[in-house]
Amino acid sequence: MDKVLLHIEHLTKRYDKDTVALRDVSIDFKEGDFVVVIGPSGAGKSTLIRCINRMIDATDGKILFDGQEISGARGQKLRVLRSEIGMVFQNYNLVPDLNVYDNVVLPIELDGKRIDRKFVREIMELLQIGEKAEALPGMLSGGQQQRVAIARAVAAKPSIILADEPTGNLDTASGHDVMGLLKVA
Ligand code: ADP
Ligand code: MG
User: Fold this and answer.
1) What's the confidence (pLDDT) of residue 90?
2) pLDDT for 35-62, tens place per residue?
3) Lowest CB count within 10 Å: 75, 102, 103, 115, which one?
4) Cβ distance 51 to 57 under 8 Å?
5) Residues 6+ apart with CB under 8 A from 119
6) Which residues pair with 37 in a beta bridge?
7) Which residues contact 96 (CB under 8 A, 6 or more apart)?
């Protein structure tokens, strides 16, 4: 059986007394899984991702990454766990003053890790942004910015990638492309 990478147990997130965004969610993500979480706007998809990455704290329940508790982790332990989790944000979160290449390698640099330049180049070619390495994010189309965000997540070689509506701002054809690229990554 494949190893469980991310284990979510009885997770509840209550923003206030009237807003329960997640109610008793339990799910296992195994190594190699490609999981799509669907639901209408307001269903709690972004909340789930934010809880996993600990941008927010869950109200109740447990999140284990590779057997280690993320919920409750702090300081260096949280930093290490976070470096195993690649994020593709809904609004891309690219740094406008840095060119595409520098955006892609930024998390690796912030982590103080060595940049595998050959690997980064390969990822950028695969995502068809190799020729845009020197461009600033503002000079790119939405779809290109989305691919830079994916390249950035993949380049740091995380164990898992969480993407929040990675095709949300794309047309159907580009959306299919992005899903295909995420599968390859
Ligand atoms: P989705 O990503 O599926 O559209 P969200 O996780 O963003 O859903 O939101 C789930 C619910 O939680 C919604 O009812 C939303 O209004 C509420 N919510 C999200 N973020 C906050 C917040 N920071 N404070 C209060 N309520 C929030
Ligand atoms: Mg959302």
Assistant:
1) 87
2) 999 999 999 999 999 999 999 999 999 9
3) 75
4) yes
5) 155, 157
6) none
7) 136, 137, 138
Helix (H) or strand (E) holding 58: none
DSSP assignment letter at 140: S
- Please give the pLDDT value at position 176: 81
What is the distance in A from the centroid of ligand 2 to the CA of 122?
A: 30
Q: Ligand 1 — pocket residues by CB below 6 A?
A: 15, 19, 21, 39, 41-47
Cα–Cα nearest to 14, from 57, 53, 74, 55 = 57
Q: List the structure tokens of 44.
A: 């709690």
Ligand nearest to the CA of 40: 1
Q: Is the pLDDT of residue 168 over 90?
A: no
Residue to probe by mutation, ligand 1, list 17, 20, 46, 47, most atoms within 8 Å of CB: 47
What is the position in ligand 1's atom list of the atom closest to the CA of 46?
2
Ligand 1 centre and the CA of 118: distance in Å? 39
User: Which amino acid, residue 30?
Assistant: K
**Is a pLDDT exceeding 90 seen at residue 166?**
no
Question: Mean pLDDT score of the chain, rounded to an integer?
Answer: 91
Ion ligand 2 contact residues with beta carbon within 5 A: 45-46
132: how many CB neighbours lie within 10 A of its CB?
A: 21
